[in-house]
């Protein structure tokens, strides 16, 4: 990656239909195109009557590359969101590097991360809603473990950024909140494969953080520790990943069903 | 579905040839057009020398949309009707919602219902000949299970609605019947995805029952239970549905038959 | 099933370790033995640090037969309970009939029910926390659909049966509750394969409901509708069920691993 | 773990023969017994003519519990040490909790950590030679990821703690070292499952760090994130671990060899 | 092998990507084609971020036949190179004989050699960096033990063939080296199955050594000693070789995973 | 091995009954005791009516340690000798080192050698009848491969050392032999684990060759290459060795034969 590369992403809530043919997605695509940036954006996706916590990927020409669905919602999220499967754990090979994403606490899933390491991820995006200091520790660890750049984006928002009560209530804490109370403190950061924090964390307000990424650092890091290469022990540990879509019901019109043998 | 929508259907016996180019079907189409209603109508269809128990679908402009053939006739019906296959389980995406139908006791088939749920059915039509109270329990369950509106139509008829003996005899019970004896007691009903009975059941005579359907109830219901979405367990249960037509004899001019391997 | 058979069950919350070698389970086993009843009991099971909503089965001699884990927790339950898999969907062949269980809203899962129908379930137990009238509709439908007896147990409890606030609070409704307010209204019931309610529903207090089950009703019901037999259409619908345990990590000590060839 | 528990460990170099019947091991056992501590100690083990980087475990009565061999030596270590296998990844169930260990950079191996999580590790010991700040980030992440206490021990040593040149030379840097130059800066730390640093890191000199561990924090942490329990997705990711010893040559005197089929 | 056959190989260092679609490999293929020789060439292969010490095989028409990866790097090599597995121990059946290769000190591994003997190797290639006289002893022994021709290639190079310091330093010995100092003394040789040195060793400079191989010598040698045939004792010694690729992570997209049953 | 150790052996023909209670063996034992040497002696052993080519081991106090039977006779030997099995591949742990032996061309068997390497052989004795130069190459290779001292003894004898014709005839060559013709040229040698020839080979006459063995050379050699330790790849290659005696007929008085399942 020669010369400085601009990279921008953020984390917004968006009610989206299927990514294809959806006005919200088209608007994001246009933004990516207009600003000539690769855009990795957290959205709420709807398929049928189930919502998913999803990340969308766009290239710098506004092309929609694909999506990742959060595999396992956390705590109360499980009342809101469905469960992704192995078919949306993409790592896209782009001119600026191999890009993928894991969402919030699924970054803690060692097998999910290993799947992305095995796909050669170089630019590991981690949209989150966790603004605690321990998040930075996890991001640093992932950069070291995976030998990749980690770009973690978190929203910064105050009480007043949400609708007023009773339309929107923060459970059990509404009385203690002023309009300027920080609800989520941000803390976006960019970390190199050697564990160096290149930008952020910023806990003070909305911000655009940037860093020039020297992809050569990946080789430098993996020289000593290549998590799925020379430092793995495949004869002791082997991780199997099932990537086919999981569907409750499959329709076939051809006479031979592929999954007849399942 | 903005504003009130009028919906009407009933259950008649009809000897039909192929739905296309068939005067009876044209007459039904004209009715739908005249009254500007979506018409979901049970008929007896003839193909070759076999009869099928079939539902026809027309839109409010009189367009014939398609048909569903009962997959499995019940009891003595098997002496009269043939068996449908997977090629006629349609769910039509119309301006008033996604419409499909299951006939009488095939409503008890969990896999058939699941097929229609997976196609996103919103207005589930259930023409029947079962006027027992347990039928309402099944309709309520289906509304809850599928997160859809259930519209069940049953005929109300007396002995005198049929030809006189000996032209038409009710087996073994003719002597106890008066002309006003109720032969089938009706009980049509409309039930919401939350299990609320919006109209019916009416067991007292011919009637037109109506309800305004708030399709938003579907999302409200599926928030907690989405049968083929977030509440399914596709990695444990996967239902495969073969939708190709089943023919006893196929003619091919190409050298390799597609279904050779079936 | 000649002569009257006493059947008793209820729905209690219980923190259980692994079913084997667990004092709570032993106590249940002793109860079954003492009262000479088959006991089908809802419990909260703990494995490692994850809880499961589980049903335990004991025979009338106090033998622990096995368990079923709820496959998909409902709504807020997903914050508390883990997810069962296909390995605990048992139907036990006992001298009083084939017994299995589905828990609360997983009774709405058509594929889970079909799995139990395919295993020949005769005495379908449905512990629940749903005391609405629509629950009885679902139970009736399941009896008809599956051609089996349905025994649904629900707890009856008042506010005073729980600890006082602030130790235990009912979310958002505490101020409107008196000690005698009914929190869960019960409604246990027993329904025959022909859809006849043999006992219950009782919404007025704690109660023991009983019925004599004539297993011949199963054959009578299936004569007209055998959901996985003569009324199924396996060439159109085929449901695949994966029953092996799902483990995040598997350890092997023998030299030949089955997946050595992967 | 009621009441305060003293826990001590350090990281020393030791030329050991087989752990059993080895005077160095006996001396360590006596220390554990004398001070009534569980002792988790890094040693250099010799088997035949190959050395291993190993951790030994002793209970507070001086009983040798077992050992863990480093699976993959790092960088130049590979010229000195052999490779462990899957047969020495123990987690010991002791009265003070379930104890295991990973050595230095093998702590970066996500599959090794997952193996120990699956064995229920509660007290995760991480002897290391890495005194960089990023090490603390990794330890914090592991505590959060595994929902366990992490106890990381690193040596503090100065140039003068080693023999003088030419007997012992630090490669390429000898001239810049004074006798007081810090060669390895320590940084031992104890971290809770919630990511709280309970003791350390201490980079200033030899020290004994202690903390009282409230094992209830493990359940509190795993309520939201149970890495091999409710937050795993075993139907997507399954990790297989081969635990049998790997031997280049096996001798059998019985007539039936177990591995005949390998 | 009728008539004289020209055979040429050497040992060079080459940074190669994957053998397929790699310009360096294509260049080697063109050389083999141009000179109509079978080419067995040591290279440095890169996969992901891990390097392997590899031998490539080309036939005399320039076809790339396959590769062998060094199974175990020696000493400091372990800091640079990853570890091969059982999936790249090929023996190619070509018109000039059965060809395979072992790299440098892995020639000392009796089990690796036995694997190649069992595959019927006739032309055993041994690229090396060992120019000591004892190397010739090992090569002679292998020819006798395996009943095969051994062709060992080693580079001849002087200090001046490498970049000048400080760009490239020979550890600890730079001051004693003149530009003409021999760094690696060559010693390539060709040995018959009867232990006769047919060509080489040449320790004086770059050279092309050749010999006509009479493959009949193999049969003559094995008449008295057939290492995996009449002189083996399989009821006492059985060597098991696992040839499947070892992967830290495996992805599956088809619905039926081979390890689904694990 | 501090200080010089005297070691002596030779190669004689001896018709022996069972080693125990056999005058020839007692004579050898007395020699070992008298001269205070460890004695490793080739003999011809008789059991029943079959002869074996055997090596006997005695310690320096005249204690008979055990024996090794040649596993596979070579060429015409097969007309004279039976076949050993896995029960006599001993390596004796003595105060002067771990001692074992392989006879003549069975030294070419890579699996037999590996068995002895795995038993930790340090002083590898190789009585032989092969006086060709290639024998020295094999001995050198074995020393390097096994990281052990190799002591190879061969007889030196002339025609006159054998009975005169017609009592004893050398097949097809008798006429060209004078009484002083060398029949077997000796060539005994002692080689270090680093491949250095410490004594011999002597092809000129009967001789006693000696060397002081610095067992520290073994560790020095195995630092870089430990054939069954850090340089093995047990997950790729595993050698199984069956050490139980093979008997054509076994008598058992217990009802279950242990080898029933073989």
TrEMBL record, chains A, B, C, D, E, F:
It is an enzyme of class 3 (hydrolase). It comes from the Eukaryota. Keywords: Hydrolase. It catalyses: 3-cyano-L-alanine + 2 H2O = L-aspartate + NH4(+). InterPro entries: C-N_Hydrolase (IPR003010), C-N_Hydrolase_sf (IPR036526), Nitrilase/CN_hydratase_CS (IPR000132), Nitrilases_CHs (IPR044149). One of its GO terms (biological process) is detoxification of nitrogen compound. Residues 1-215 form the CN hydrolase domain. It holds the Pfam family CN_hydrolase. One of its GO terms (molecular function) is nitrile hydratase activity. Its EC number is 3.5.5.4. Belongs to the carbon-nitrogen hydrolase superfamily. Nitrilase family. This is cyanoalanine nitrilase.
